[in-house]
């Protein structure tokens, strides 16, 4: 199938109220432009350098989401334009985003990345750390950051029960925090598990290979 057909096929599977982040990492700007032409506006990138290069080449009304692990010294390169940073996995990085947002006279949307997978390779906050950052935000810290929600990645496994269990942990935390601090986004689910994620309460999915095809790891 063509890129457009892949995209339309995914769109048919996702309810209208669910945000689709088309994960374009490692794929050329021309492919993003093709999806832009048929209406997609939200794209996810993993690496700062690749994101800034694509930002320069593509229409400025694209909502860019940084979904990969972010180092503090790279925040300044995306702070002028990034729509959402989904991968806030420490207080240190949140501090830096806040600082760079202030320098750019902006408020940057972020999601707190919570570690729900049973894999050491995955980044993320512990549940208690995520709640602690919310409390600090409520107390007036991080004035130039909008904490819009939570993000999580399930374990890379065929075990659907395990994946569903991990998604449910994040949904429970989302619901708990929502009782005292309003959240909008629960970002769970990728190409292999987005349908299960939606069933588990996700309202934002990050789909890459199911749209763009296999990645070109240069």
Q: Can you give a write-up of this model?
A:
This protein is an alpha/beta fold. The chain has a single domain (3-212), classed as TIM Barrel. Helices cover 40% and strands 18% of the residues. It has helices spanning 3-13, 29-37, 48-57, 75-78, 91-103, 127-138, 160-178, 194-199, 209-212, and strands spanning 19-23, 42-45, 63-66, 84-88, 108-113, 145-152, 185-188, 204-207. The chain has an eight-stranded parallel sheet.
CATH class: Alpha Beta
Please list the strands of the largest sheet in the order they lie side by side. 7-6-5-4-3-2-1-8
Number-wise, the strands total 8
Largest sheet: 8 strands, parallel
Name given to the CATH homologous superfamily: Alanine racemase
Percent helix, as a range, is: 40-55%
Structural class: alpha/beta
| Principal-axis shape | globular
Total number of helical segments?
9
Give the amount of beta strand, in percent: 15-25%
Q: Roughly how many Å apart are the termini? A: 23 Å
Mean pLDDT: 96
Q: What is the domain total for the residues?
A: 1
Rg computed from alpha carbons, rounded to a whole number of angstroms: 17 Å
CATH topology: TIM Barrel
Enumerate the spans where pLDDT stays under 50 for 5 or more consecutive residues: none
Secondary-structure arrangement, i.e. CATH architecture: Alpha-Beta Barrel
List SSEs in N-to-C order: HEHEHEHEHEHEHEHEH
């Amino acid at each position: 199938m063509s890129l457009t057909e892949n995209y339309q096929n995914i769109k048919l599977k996702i309810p209208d109220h669910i945000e689709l982040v088309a994960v374009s990492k490692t794929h050329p700007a021309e492919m993003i432009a093709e999806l832009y032409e048929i209406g997609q506006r939200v794209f996810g990138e993993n690496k700062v350098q690749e994101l800034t290069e694509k930002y320069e080449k593509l229409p400025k009304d694209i909502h860019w989401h940084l979904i990969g692990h972010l180092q503090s010294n790279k925040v300044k390169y995306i702070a002028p334009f990034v729509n959402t940073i989904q991968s806030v996995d420490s207080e240190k990085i949140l501090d830096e985003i806040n600082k760079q947002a202030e320098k750019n006279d902006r408020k940057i949307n972020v999601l707190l990345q919570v570690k729900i997978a049973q894999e050491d390779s995955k980044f993320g906050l512990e549940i208690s750390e995520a709640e602690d950052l919310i409390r600090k935000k409520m107390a007036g810290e991080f004035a130039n950051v909008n904490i819009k929600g939570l993000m999580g990645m399930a374990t890379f496994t065929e075990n659907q029960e395990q994946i569903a269990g991990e998604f449910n942990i994040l949904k429970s935390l989302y619901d708990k925090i929502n009782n005292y601090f309003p959240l909008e986004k629960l970002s769970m689910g990728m190409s292999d598990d987005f349908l299960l994620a939606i069933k588990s309460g996700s309202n934002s999915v990050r789909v890459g290979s199911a749209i763009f095809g296999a990645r070109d790891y240069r």
